[in-house]
Each structure stands twice: as structure tokens, then as C-alpha cells.
Write a structure and sequence with these properties.
Length: 110
Amino acid sequence: MLSDGDYNAAYVAILALAPYASRSREARRLILRAAMDRQAPTARMAGVLALATVNDAWARARLHALPSGWVDDYTEGEAKRALSHPACRKGLVLAHHLGIGACQLAPDYR
């Protein structure tokens, strides 16, 4: 979050790529690049949260491979919560409502 209370535009853009990761190699590449960014903790956090949202076999393998302490406690908790659910099928993303996670159709970000 920025000092004025708004979210970083790059952070929001990385999260918005999650619904497209199942059918776009470029979206996957950008999400993974952000999640592995050693210099930008905000990008790293967004990338890991996007992986947790995608929650398919590809994303789960990347989440399992992340070193402990790679991100802040909140982001690491979200990744662990995603891994506690079954993998989502192609075209679905993990969403949480009232503490209950389920794979569902991605919202339209257009």
C-alpha cells in the first residue's frame, strides 16, 4: 500500500494476471518473475499472492519451492492456505469468502 492509502499499480496488475495464467504463458512468466524478485518486496508479495490465487498444479509447484521467510507473514499464510486446498482446474482461481476457500470462475477484470 502506498502512503496515500492507495495500492501500488504494479501490485494490482500482477494480481490481475492470475485469472489469465491458465491460458497465457506470458502471464505465468510475469507472475513467476514477480514472485522471485529479490529487489522488490511488493512485487514479490504480489507474485506469491497471484500464485496462491491461481492454485493449479503449476502454481502449487512454485509455491512449494519458495524458501521459508521469502515473503512477509501475511503472504506466507495465504500461500499456505492455498496449498491446504485442492488444486484448481484450468480456468478457475481460488477465492475465499468468509474464511472458506473454493475454486471458482475468475472475476472479469476488464
